[in-house]
Every structure is written in structure tokens, then in C-alpha cells.
């Protein structure tokens, strides 16, 4: 019975850890919503896509575009 109680307690504890995901890094800017951020990101992706560049340069150009707009990559400190 004691083993069952311990196993049940550990299972509940681990399930609780599973339910709270860690925040993921993303583009953010103070006073800009996630929806607006996605709009800026999509605009940058579109503009980079209009140029004929190598695929490996696309990510760097998209990053440069977002940085130019004042966004930062990371986990926001709310």
C-alpha cells in the first residue's frame, strides 16, 4: 500500500510538470501584441522572399528585418 501511495504521488507530481510548458523564445517588442508581431514577421518573410537570395540567407535577412523594426528574439520578461 505504501508503494502504491508513493507511486501515485510521483505520477501526480510528474503529470503536473508535464502540464506547465516552458516559455519558448519568440520575437517580441514592448507594447506590441503577438498578433501584430506575427504581422511584422510575415511582412519581413514576404519582403525577403521577393528577393532572389539563397535559402540560408533568408533567415538572416528576416532576422535583420525584425531587428530593424525594433523587435528582439527571446523570452519576454513580463
Verbal overview:
- The chain has a domain of 54 residues.
- The protein has 3 helices and 2 strands; from the N terminus they run αβααβ.
- A two-stranded antiparallel sheet has the order 1-2.
- Helix 2 packs across helix 3.
- The longest helix is centred in the first third of the chain and has 18 residues.
Keywords for this structure?
2 strands, single chain, mainly alpha, elongated, two-stranded antiparallel sheet, 3 helices, 78 residues
Topology:
Layout: H1 2-19, E1 26-28, H2 34-50, H3 55-68, E2 72-74
Q: Taking Cα atoms only, what radius of gyration do you get, to the nearest Å?
A: 21 Å
Form type = elongated
Class from helix and strand fractions: mainly alpha
Q: On the 0-100 scale, what is the average pLDDT?
A: 88
The biggest beta sheet reads: 2 strands, antiparallel
Strand adjacency order, main sheet: 1-2
Strand content: 5-15%
User: What is the H-and-E element order?
Assistant: HEHHE
State the end-to-end distance: 45 Å
Q: What is the helix tally?
A: 3
Low-pLDDT residue intervals, each spanning 5 or more residues: none
Care to give the gist of this entry?
The chain is mainly α and 78 residues long. It has three helices and two strands.
